[in-house]
Amino acid sequence: MRGEKADRRKKLLRVLVVLVLIIVIAIAAIYTHLNNAFTVALMESLSTFEVTRVEYPSIQPDSIQLNITFTLKNPTDFPISIEAIIISLYIDEKHIIGVNLPLNENLPAGEDTFFYSIHDVTSNDVLSSIRSQTYTLRVEGEIVGSTSYLFVQTHVRKGLAFSNVVEGIP
Q1: What are phi and psi of 65, to 5 degrees?
Q2: In terms of CB atoms within 10 Å, which end of the chain has fewer, N or C?
Q3: Which of 3.30.565, 2.40.50, 2.60.40, 1.10.3410 is the CATH number of 39-167?
Q4: Confidence of residue 32 (pLDDT cuts 50, 70, 90)
């Protein structure tokens, strides 16, 4: 009788250990799936960062004010946070400035957000490029974003490198 009870307890203990292992594995699989899904969605959103407008509100003989509008789209079904945008701007391969755009910007699900960068350009080489018919505006750097849902938090760092042909001020 005692031997049967001990055997039952051992069997029950084994079943409980197996159930606990199954639950732990299921939770780990769900976490991994959610983390991967959030990472992919966040990368897609960060990949939408682009220059959408270049304006020249002040044009002087020895300087031009350059206002650049950047757009970031959030096509996901959840909000994301932009922790950092660190970029360098080049006009016709001439470095004009390094920029840190505002941090901790929250992007609601399914919406676009705009970032603005204003610069006074005084370099003669760069001024002559801006005063031509067109020039190439190149952006390099990185963008850091994150999102979280329940117990899953994802951070992504994405490199930026793209160019736009921009109309100058002929």
Answers
A1: -85, 130
A2: N
A3: 2.60.40
A4: confident
